[in-house]
Amino acid sequence: MELVDEEKILELERRIKQLEATKKxxxxxxxxxxxxxxxxxxxxxxxxxxxxxxxxxxLFFTFWAISALRDKEKRxxxxxxTSKMFGAMLPRGTSDVKLSKMNMAGAGLSMLxxxxxxxxxxxxxxxxxxxxxLGVEINICEMSMDxxxxxxxxxxxxxxxxxxxxxxxxxxxxxxxxxLFI
Length: 182
What we know:
Distance between the termini: 56 Å
Strand order of the largest sheet: 4-3-2-1-5
Radius of gyration: 21 Å
Order of helices and strands: HEHEHHHEHEHE
Oligomer: single chain
Strand content: 15-25%
Structural class: alpha/beta
Number of strands: 5
């Protein structure tokens, strides 16, 4: 009888160790793909909300979302012609992004910004600043930057900004309790 109980305890200990080894970090990993204001706002609100809940937050900005991180005042040096042309067509920073729906040649965007101000909702710039202060990490996909003709010289100053590949995102996502795609 005593031997059976000891075997059960050992089995339970083994299972607990197994569960602890596969336990995810209290971390949120999010792919930010869209460069549209409403989706960027959602990403930043979720990111700052997660840090308020003591979660570690890592954002992976890729493709169209990267344009929102361009500094309006900075210019890249030595770009080839196609990169210059592509860069000219892309939004430059948060003030150039549009809505995903009901943009209506900018009328919808103006209405949303007006409502946000009236209802005291933080702007995208304010949310980015807060995220930086809270330690939200922003990783920019180097391959997407290269494809879109963007360079590090033209990105915003952000305290936790890194450049990496998809492998870094996948490693972060693998150990995160929550993964999102916006």
